[in-house]
Amino acid sequence: AAEEEQRMRRMKSNRESARRSRLRKRKHFESLRDEANVLRGVNVELMIRRRLTESQNQCVAAENYRLRAEAEMLRRRLSDVRRTLILRQLNCSRAWPCST
């Protein structure tokens, strides 16, 4: 009778332990599921930010290209203006030689 009572207590204790184990497992699973959902949201946000950054990068690259082309055009115009000034100075000095 005492052995039977002890066996019944062990069975009850084992059932309670198994129930607590299942509960811990379920809570752990729910925690992992919640974390996965949060990480999916973060991932979506990061993908959106990446696309935005790539788009901004393309705009900056296009602007850099335009500015480089404009700078080259301005360098050429400056060179042309300098050449014109030098030619004018040469023509002027030929027309009005120094009286030294």
Task: Give your account of this protein's structure.
94% of the residues lie in helices and 0% in strands. It has one helix at residues 2-95. The protein is mainly alpha-helical and 100 residues long. It is rod-shaped. The model has no long low-confidence stretch (mean pLDDT 95). 0% of the residues are buried. The N and C termini lie far apart (141 Å). Residues 1-24 are annotated as: Disordered. One of its GO terms (biological process) is positive regulation of DNA-templated transcription. InterPro entries: bZIP, bZIP_sf.
**Number of beta-strand segments:** 0
Compute the separation of the termini in Å: 141 Å
The portion of residues forming beta strands comes to under 5%
* Backbone shape: rod-shaped
Major sheet? none
| Structural class by SSE content | mainly alpha
- SS summary, helix count: 1
- What is the mean predicted local confidence, pLDDT? 95
Uncertain runs are: none
Radius of gyration over C-alpha positions, nearest whole angstrom: 42 Å
Q: What is the share of helical residues? A: over 70%
**What's the helix-strand series?**
H
In short:
94% of the residues lie in helices and 0% in strands. It contains 1 helix and no strands. The mean pLDDT is 95.
